[in-house]
Amino acid sequence: MEVIYALAVGILVGSGTWLVLRPRTFQVIIGLSLFSYAVNLFILAMGRLKVDKAPIITADGATDPALYADPVPQALVLTAIVISFATTALFLVVLLAARGFTGTDHVDGREGEP
Amino acid sequence: MSPWLQHLPVAPVLLPLCAGASMLLFRQHRVRAAIGLFAGFVQLAVALTLLYLTSDYVPGIWPEGIGVYSIGAWSAPYGIVLVVDRLAAFMLVLSATLTLPTLVYALAGWDRAGVHYHPLLQLLSMGLSGAFLTGDIFNLFVFFEVTLAASYGLMLHGPSAARVKAGLHYIVVNLIASLLFLLGAALIYGVAGTLNMADLGARIAALAARDRGLFEAGVGLLGVAFLVKAASWPLNFWLPAAYASASAPVAAVFCILTKLGVYSVVRVGSLLGAAGIASPLGGSPLLYAGLATMLFAIVGMLAAQQLRRLVAFAVVASSGTVLAAMGLDAASMTAPALFYLLSSVLATAAFFMLTGMADRARTGEVITDTGAEPLPTYATFGNVEDPGDARDSSDEVGVAIPAATAFLGLMFVSCTLLIAGLPPLSGFVAKLALLAAALDVRSTLELPAQSWLIICALLVSGLASLVACARIGMRLFWSPAGRSTPRLRVVEATPAALLVALCIALTVYAAPVMSYLHKAAVGLHAPQIYIHAVLSAHRERAPTPGPEP
Fold it and tell me: What is the spatial distance between Cα B357 and Cα B467, in angstroms, rounded to a whole number?
């Protein structure tokens, strides 16, 4: 599972980086979104990957930490998702404003050399 | 300690939040401005009280000048703590001192160039306070985001094509930096198992050798994120365009944003160096990054054709100077660097305010900038009040000060002296202290050449800013081409003059300020005291039963 997970994060970061370096604002925003998905997955992985483990102590009171998932990265990732969602929305507004002002969707506000 | 005083550390965060939120209930600008002014004054009073409490005058309240506030009374490594030490209190006072004049300055009409200037400014103030106070890396991230989100809004305040373009770059670069910040924080958590900065400092020695590489990679990612904010070369190409195209009061308040990055580097670097191991965030790399930043700023200042760009590069230069001084591995450099930070933030902010006023005096021939032009209506998103009224003559109730040009000239000379570090203003005191400290420590350094590098960079950057300012100033004030006497308003002139007056006061009272900063520096170089204060906070308090799950 670790390999698949790592590959997923790697592919998302790779695609995100490529898209962020593209000249169109829409490509940049998709790149930023992919990048933030990758970061969110990475944060979750930093609590170690566990399947079928609860992040809170169960009613039977077992205290072996191996039985539980780490709750902190889950809380962190929730905050990170909310923040990246908000900033992406904000960036979308700026993107539209830039399109309205300059008449082009190039990040520099003018078309580069063909 | 009285039960109310105990909650004071959280006030700088809550107060702007409540003020900003309550402003949204009112549509009238006057009400919003009144709330903002009130909140600004209270914020300043709170910050000054915190400064007083951390000083030596009242040693009984917070031992060693470190106050710890556990939010929700959850104790340190698990709960979130706010920590007021001397450095944090100093930065709080600086940000409150800067926010209030920019708010007043904006009342001249800048705040009506777009919607929600006042709430955004309050949120910016909240984010800054939170970032200075927090003792937890993830919360530092959250407060960074609050600050940045507000700054995106302020950056685009009164949108124009140039502003939106520069703002777009600013936002993309800072979003990527934030994502790197998250990656770094996650790596640190994954390796060390904690995000509390004090706990991290205590645990770093116990890390397994095979984990150290990963840990330092995480700290490195954090460092990159901080340095993007601190405008360190080569991560600062977004800054001059962004600051130069922002409106004058916004650019003035942005002067402290770069110093937030510097503060984070210093704070995290200091705590990670607690275990006696060389801190992964500091030392020679920081010195060379700072020197490169100064060099970049020198070239930029000399090449600048507009006053705004010149001031933007001066902001970069001041960041570079502080970074380089902090990177020199010597405790005695810290206090002069902090003094320089204080003086340069006030000076660049006053300079940005001056550009806003001086731009109105010229005819567009000298500086072809869109900043103070009549702003295009941007009604796509509705409820934007007509921005044109900001500079309407009917609205211009200000007094035409006869000596307006003289005032502008005097301000310009003062700002130039402050930035170039010439006597008799506080810039000189700061640079002299830096030079003296650099000369003093050169025998104790491994590489005495580093000390000479810093001395050369300081002197050259002073000369370059003097040359650049003189050149632009001559064109701005002496060129006869179609000048008109600018109409100044008291609300605009007073805050700028106040900032310069503060710098003069800083020159006169340099000794007490410097002695406070020396104590702050001692605290930074003895992080064990901070760590002990944070981790033992819950034991000193009366039992605080948390809710049992």
Answer: 22
For residue B92, being part of any structural domain is answered with no
What is the distance between the alpha carbons of residues B379 and B400, in angstroms, rounded to a whole number? 32
Per-run averaged pLDDT (10 residues), chain B, 549 residues: 78 91 86 89 91 79 79 80 89 92 84 82 92 90 91 83 85 91 91 86 81 87 90 85 86 90 89 72 83 92 87 91 84 88 91 82 40 41 41 46 72 88 86 88 77 89 90 77 64 86 89 88 84 73 43
Q: Which domain holds residue B485?
A: 283-363+400-508
CA-closest candidate to residue B96, choices B306, B262, B345: B345
Nearest by CB to residue B165, choosing from A28, A43, A102, is: A102
| CA angle centred on B298, ends B297 and B300, rounded to 5° | 60
Tell me whether residue B431 is in a domain. yes
Question: What residues have CB less than 8 Å from B62, skipping those under 6 apart?
Answer: B53, B54, B84
Question: What pTM value is reported for the model?
Answer: 0.86
Listed residue (B312, B348, B350) closest to B155, CA to CA: B312
3-state secondary structure B374-442: CCCCCCCCCCCCCHHHHHCCCCCCCCCCCCHHHHHHHHHHHHHHHHHCCCCCHHHHHHHHHHHHHHHHC
| DSSP 8-state symbol, B481 | T
Q: Are strands B81-84 and B67-70 parallel, antiparallel or unpaired?
A: antiparallel
Q: Count how many domains chain B has.
A: 1
- Alpha carbons B270 and B322: distance in angstroms, whole number: 15
Domain-embedded: residue B348 = yes
Please enumerate residues of A whose Cβ is less than 8 A from a Cβ of B. 20, 25, 28, 32, 35-36, 39, 42-43, 45-48, 56-57, 72-73, 76, 79-80, 83-84, 86-87, 90-91, 93-98, 100-102, 107-109
Q: How far is it, in rounded angstroms, from Cα B294 to Cα B290? A: 6
Report the 10 Å Cβ neighbour count for B251. 28
Q: Rounded CA gap, B86 and B232, in Å? A: 25
- Report angle CA B40, B44, B47 to the nearest 5 degrees: 135
- Cα(B415)–Cα(B425) distance, integer angstroms: 9
In a domain, B452, yes or no: yes
Task: For each of the domains in chain A, give its residue range(s) and CATH number, in order of start.
Answer: 2-53+67-102 (1.10.287)
Q: What is the ipTM of this complex?
A: 0.91
